[in-house]
From TrEMBL:
It catalyses: (2S,3S)-2-methylcitrate = 2-methyl-cis-aconitate + H2O; citrate = D-threo-isocitrate. Belongs to the PrpD family. Residues 20-272 form the MmgE/PrpD N-terminal domain. One of its GO terms (molecular function) is 2 iron, 2 sulfur cluster binding. Residues 290-461 form the MmgE/PrpD C-terminal domain. Its EC number is 4.2.1.3, 4.2.1.79. Pathway: Organic acid metabolism; propanoate degradation; Carbohydrate metabolism; tricarboxylic acid cycle; isocitrate from oxaloacetate: step 2/2. Keywords: Lyase, Tricarboxylic acid cycle. It holds the Pfam family MmgE_PrpD_N. This is 2-methylcitrate dehydratase. GO terms for biological process: propionate metabolic process, methylcitrate cycle; tricarboxylic acid cycle.
Length: 483
């Protein structure tokens, strides 16, 4: 029978993308010092972002057991809390904490995303396994182990994102969080290549969440826990593959009519720019200064530069022109009433108006009490957002990966500010030397805002010595964040 005969029950070999992920996770040896150094900063930054999220009750209410009493003493802990949970629910909680404020790292290409979302699965499974190992007298996982798994999760998510646009078919980027987390969590649990292939096939069979919760008119807070949901599902697939021995689905992608390509990707197979290595971690973008959707980061920087010139003349503003990339136009150019926090932190006009008025953009600036200031919507009404083709070209250029924006303010008397243009934000690889000290200040401030002083002191002492931090058992390190 033909391979395309849907009546044939002949089981094919696994699709090559499934095999390539399994081979990479099991066999690839990471030898990049830059990748490990960047991963270490990524871990600290993500935990800091999680601590900042603890100030928001809408986040905190998601962090406990799924139902009251469903705890697991000796299980996986949720940083900044006293919760001990099974690793599936802990993955949801940690992924939700890290992602809540839209302040963790970012990757931008044909698909967008936040690779540190995968720490939800990695830290939950890692803490569970490390504590279990100590109880049983075997070797616990170290922080170094976790950094290696994080590098691989970043690489899987980021390499898929380079040429494959899931947003173009209406799917949310957390489909790649589930994919990458499934692969590394299965390996962490002791899975071999076959089990990783099986787990990954289940991840694709899940299909994807719709992006509608990120876009007008339905923007809402699900976008802040969607990555946690992907992490939770990933750990479930990993457990099923390793502990339950579930059957895999080798042509989950390519099966005619019923596979992912035909059902969800317009019949197109995935494309890849490069083999898996450590490229993504080395080039990942940090959100250091502003909790803003990343396509607007440099727009916020531009607005901050213009604050002193504009703040005293708000009633004289005639027009504000924002130039951005095509992706920025498509995702965050938004008019009309903004219903909630999630609506505002995905509106480039709002994210420019606040720094022009106040000279700042912090997480609480998306709350209702700040949004009620009539000057914000008055400025938004005067804004025009247009694509700058050069920004778009530089955005997709693999040698640059810029995220450019410009802002210029025009006044009623015919005068104007200069056109302030910034190609890449402080979190870009080319600004690492400038950015890392700011990242560490962000991290320490986040710790001091939520944890007792003696714990902050111990955390900062560990962070100051990379070799000692790498060698720490993971559960000892995460214990420093436990209340």
């Amino acid at each position: 029978m033909s391979a395309h005969d849907i009546r044939s029950a002949v089981r094919p070999d696994p699709d090559q993308p499934l095999v390539d992920i399994a081979d990479y996770v099991v066999n690839y040896q990471i030898d990049s010092k830059e990748a490990y150094d960047t991963a270490r900063y990524m871990l600290l930054d993500s935990l800091g972002t999680a601590m900042l999220a603890m100030k928001f009750p809408e986040c905190v209410k998601h962090l406990g057991p799924l139902v009251p009493g469903a705890t697991l003493p000796g299980g996986a802990r949720v940083p900044g809390t006293s919760h001990e949970l099974d690793p599936v629910q802990a993955a949801f909680a940690i992924g939700t904490q890290i992602r809540w404020l839209d302040f963790n790292d970012t990757w931008l290409a044909a698909e967008w995303g936040h690779p540190s979302d995968n720490l939800g699965s990695i830290l939950a499974v890692g803490d569970y396994l490390s504590r279990k190992a100590e109880r049983e007298g075997s070797r616990p996982l170290t922080v170094r182990d976790v950094l290696g798994y994080a590098i691989k999760a970043h690489e899987i998510q980021g390499c898929y994102a380079l040429l494959n646009s899931f947003n173009r078919v209406g799917q949310d980027h957390v489909i790649l969080v589930r994919l990458a987390s499934t692969a590394v969590a299965t390996a962490m649990l002791g899975g071999d290549k076959e089990q990783i292939t099986t787990a990954v096939s289940h991840s694709w069979i899940d299909n994807g969440a719709l992006r509608t919760y990120r876009h007008a008119p339905n923007t809402g807070p699900r976008k802040s826990w969607a990555a946690g949901d992907a992490c939770r599902r990933a750990v479930t697939h990993a457990i099923n593959a390793v502990y339950r021995g579930v059957v895999g689905y080798p042509s989950a992608l390519s099966a005619k009519t019923w596979g992912f390509y035909d059902v969800a990707f317009k019949g197109k197979p995935f494309e890849f720019e490069r083999p898996f290595g450590s490229y993504v971690m080395e080039n990942v973008l940090f959100k250091i200064s502003y909790p803003a959707e990343f396509h607007a980061q440099t727009a916020v920087e531009c607005a901050m530069k213009l604050h002193d010139e504009v703040a005293g003349r708000l009633d004289q503003v005639a027009k504000i022109v924002i130039e951005t990339q095509e992706a920025g136009c498509r995702i965050i150019d938004k008019t009309g009433p903004l219903a909630n926090y999630a609506d505002r932190d995905h509106c480039i006009q709002y994210m420019v108006a606040v720094p022009l008025i106040f000279g700042r953009l912090v997480a609480s600036d998306y709350n209702d009490e700040v949004a009620a200031d009539p000057r914000i919507d008055a400025l938004r009404d005067r804004m025009t957002v247009v694509e700058n083709p050069q920004f778009t070209r530089d955005y997709f250029d693999p040698a640059r990966r810029y995220i450019g924006n410009s802002v210029q303010v025009f006044f009623k008397d015919g005068s104007s500010t200069e056109k302030v243009s910034i190609d890449y934000p402080i979190g870009h690889r080319t600004r690492r030397a400038e950015g890392i000290p700011v990242l560490l200040r962000k991290f320490e401030a986040a710790m001091r805002g939520h944890l007792p002083a003696h714990q902050v002191q111990a955390i900062m002492a560990a962070a100051e010595n990379p070799a000692r931090l790498d060698a720490m058992p993971l559960h000892h390190f995460l214990g420093l964040f436990t209340l």
